[in-house]
């Protein structure tokens, strides 16, 4: 007797019952199965793409029009999830060559970049951290410290978010999100999953994951080395205005830290209002008891050799990340290699060490082996690649220039409204391309606009660069959003519900600080540098 895979459910009878005997499907029912919402969404991408190709005329090359059409296709699929996300992420590999945007080789190169190498290396380290239960130790310690007695969900949330923001100040946002995500999910593992999960628990899980990804982005704003955007801004300032005083680590910190702190508090308040209802402490306290936590910590026992080595490799990696390029006056170790080494270089190098050092548990066994790496999240890597491919396509197809011409109206904006206007524009563009691509695109334009408005260029450049880091709405906005997305706890609606007020709060904070504290720190009230 041949039974279908569908009948794996123990309740289905093995033999077909009389009323279940398959009749040949009628035309009507097969049409009904085709006309589903999912199939409509699958067609929506190509449909919108065709409409744009036929109806929208952009001055400039045909490539920029095609690029816009392809962008709409890919985003339609991403937002509706008609096709699985990693597969949509591979679509530029065939769409770009077919639409004449770039050659197959050029697109494929975007899928392997220094940031992707950074992600690969950090992921292997994160898998090692998980394998040796180090994240549980850290999660238990954070929970013990912030859990409060009786349990206070907002306080615990603050503890997790503050730890992430602090870690993110000193290293790449993606790396910080990757290190902290297993710690956060380690705390969430205590809660039931599936249908038994109460509303309060599921809300708290969402708040924690959103808190980690947004704190990673906010922490990065506070220091010069915390994110690539700040470094790009400083580099551009130096290359466009070589006579002006360069921005140092400490100057940036004086504006970046208060700014990040205020946005961080706004994030915490938003998450508490949306996801921590009054009764949540009773629902959660059943799973988080201080005595239990203490007992679990004791059960883990003292740290073994393998745990200590993995931790020290990780600490070495963080130190190397922080010291690769410090400031213009104090070159980091990167200058020994003529600036050829990137963050990815170090991350892969440190991950390699794990396959060489023995773990002292069994003879000849190393800290990591390739079998443990089978869990590498290719969905994140493909999504990152798609982000880089789109950013390159927008630039090479000439779509970037068309967007920049659309910003000419900025010259008429009154002085007070400059910071919010620039910040809004750049934070909108950054949802669709990577933060670094947005900065590289927007900052040179802002320098031109500043010259024609006769204001200090930093008044526009800093809001432009910080706005580029407000990619809070879409999973593809920045790699750390993707890291949170793959945990399965959050959906796009959650990101939009939290991201929108956070974006508004960020813009308001920046608009208040830039003309006041910014003017004091960077001297933007002095005559414009030409």
UniProtKB/TrEMBL annotation:
<feature type="transmembrane region" description="Helical">
    <location>
        <begin position="455"/>
        <end position="474"/>
    </location>
</feature>
<feature type="transmembrane region" description="Helical">
    <location>
        <begin position="207"/>
        <end position="232"/>
    </location>
</feature>
<dbReference type="GO" id="GO:0005886">
    <property type="term" value="C:plasma membrane"/>
</dbReference>
<keyword id="KW-0812">Transmembrane</keyword>
<keyword id="KW-1133">Transmembrane helix</keyword>
<feature type="transmembrane region" description="Helical">
    <location>
        <begin position="70"/>
        <end position="95"/>
    </location>
</feature>
<feature type="transmembrane region" description="Helical">
    <location>
        <begin position="177"/>
        <end position="195"/>
    </location>
</feature>
<feature type="transmembrane region" description="Helical">
    <location>
        <begin position="40"/>
        <end position="58"/>
    </location>
</feature>
<feature type="transmembrane region" description="Helical">
    <location>
        <begin position="115"/>
        <end position="134"/>
    </location>
</feature>
<dbReference type="GO" id="GO:0015140">
    <property type="term" value="F:malate transmembrane transporter activity"/>
</dbReference>
<protein>
    <submittedName>
        <fullName>Tonoplast dicarboxylate transporter-like</fullName>
    </submittedName>
</protein>
<feature type="transmembrane region" description="Helical">
    <location>
        <begin position="155"/>
        <end position="171"/>
    </location>
</feature>
<keyword id="KW-0472">Membrane</keyword>
<feature type="transmembrane region" description="Helical">
    <location>
        <begin position="252"/>
        <end position="276"/>
    </location>
</feature>
<dbReference type="Pfam" id="PF00939">
    <property type="entry name" value="Na_sulph_symp"/>
</dbReference>
<feature type="transmembrane region" description="Helical">
    <location>
        <begin position="504"/>
        <end position="523"/>
    </location>
</feature>
<feature type="transmembrane region" description="Helical">
    <location>
        <begin position="297"/>
        <end position="321"/>
    </location>
</feature>
<dbReference type="InterPro" id="IPR001898">
    <property type="entry name" value="SLC13A/DASS"/>
</dbReference>
<feature type="transmembrane region" description="Helical">
    <location>
        <begin position="378"/>
        <end position="400"/>
    </location>
</feature>
<feature type="transmembrane region" description="Helical">
    <location>
        <begin position="341"/>
        <end position="357"/>
    </location>
</feature>
<feature type="transmembrane region" description="Helical">
    <location>
        <begin position="412"/>
        <end position="434"/>
    </location>
</feature>
């Amino acid at each position: 007797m041949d039974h279908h895979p569908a009948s794996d459910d123990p309740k289905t009878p093995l033999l077909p019952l009389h009323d279940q005997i398959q009749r040949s499907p009628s035309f009507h029912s097969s049409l009904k199965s085709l006309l589903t919402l999912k199939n409509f969404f699958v067609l929506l991408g190509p449909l919108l793409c065709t409409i744009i190709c036929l109806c929208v005329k952009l001055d400039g090359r045909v490539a920029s029009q095609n690029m816009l059409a392809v962008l709409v296709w890919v985003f339609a699929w991403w937002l509706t999830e008609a096709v699985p996300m990693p597969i949509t992420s591979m679509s530029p590999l065939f769409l770009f060559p077919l639409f004449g945007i770039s050659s197959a080789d050029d697109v494929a190169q975007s899928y392997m970049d220094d940031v992707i190498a950074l992600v690969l290396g950090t992921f292997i380290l994160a898998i090692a951290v998980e394998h040796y239960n180090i994240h549980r130790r850290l999660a238990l310690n954070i929970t013990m410290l912030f859990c409060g007695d009786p349990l206070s969900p907002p306080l615990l949330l603050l503890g997790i978010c503050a730890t992430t923001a602090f870690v993110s100040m000193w290293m790449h946002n993606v790396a910080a999100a990757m290190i902290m995500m297993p710690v956060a999910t380690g705390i969430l593992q205590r809660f039931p999953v599936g249908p038994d999960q109460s509303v309060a628990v599921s809300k708290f899980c969402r708040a924690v994951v959103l808190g980690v990804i947004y704190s990673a982005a906010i922490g990065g704003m506070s220091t010069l080395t915390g994110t690539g955007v700040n470094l790009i801004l400083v580099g551009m300032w130096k290359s466009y205005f070589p006579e002006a005083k360069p921005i140092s680590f400490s100057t940036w910190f004086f504006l970046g830290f208060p700014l990040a702190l205020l946005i961080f508090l706004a994030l915490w308040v938003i998450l508490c209002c949306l996801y921590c209802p009054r009764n949540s402490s009773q629902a959660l306290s059943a799973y988080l008891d201080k005595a239990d936590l203490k007992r679990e910590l004791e059960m883990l026992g003292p740290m073994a050799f393998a745990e200590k080595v993995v931790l020290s490799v990780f600490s070495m990696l963080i130190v190397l990340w922080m010291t690769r390029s410090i400031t213009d006056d104090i070159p980091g170790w990167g200058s020994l290699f003529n600036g050829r080494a990137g963050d990815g270089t170090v991350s892969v190098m440190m991950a390699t060490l794990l396959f060489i050092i023995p773990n002292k548990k069994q003879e000849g066994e190393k800290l990591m082996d390739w079998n443990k790496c089978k869990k590498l999240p290719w969905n994140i890597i493909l999504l990152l690649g798609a982000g880089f491919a789109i950013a390159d396509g927008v630039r090479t197809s000439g779509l970037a220039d068309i967007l920049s011409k659309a910003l000419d109206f900025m010259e008429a904006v009154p002085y007070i409204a400059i910071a919010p206007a620039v910040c809004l524009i750049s934070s909108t563009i950054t949802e669709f391309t990577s933060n670094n691509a947005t900065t590289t695109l927007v900052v040179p334009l802002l320098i031109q606009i500043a010259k024609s408005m006769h204001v200090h260029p930093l008044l526009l450049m800093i809001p432009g660069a910080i706005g580029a880091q407000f990619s809070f709405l879409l999973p593809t906005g920045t790699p750390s959003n993707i890291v949170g997305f793959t945990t399965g706890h959050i959906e796009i609606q959650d990101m939009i519900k939290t991201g929108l007020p956070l974006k508004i709060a960020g813009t308001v904070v920046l608009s208040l600080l830039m003309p006041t504290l910014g003017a004091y720190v960077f001297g933007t009230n002095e005559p414009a540098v030409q």
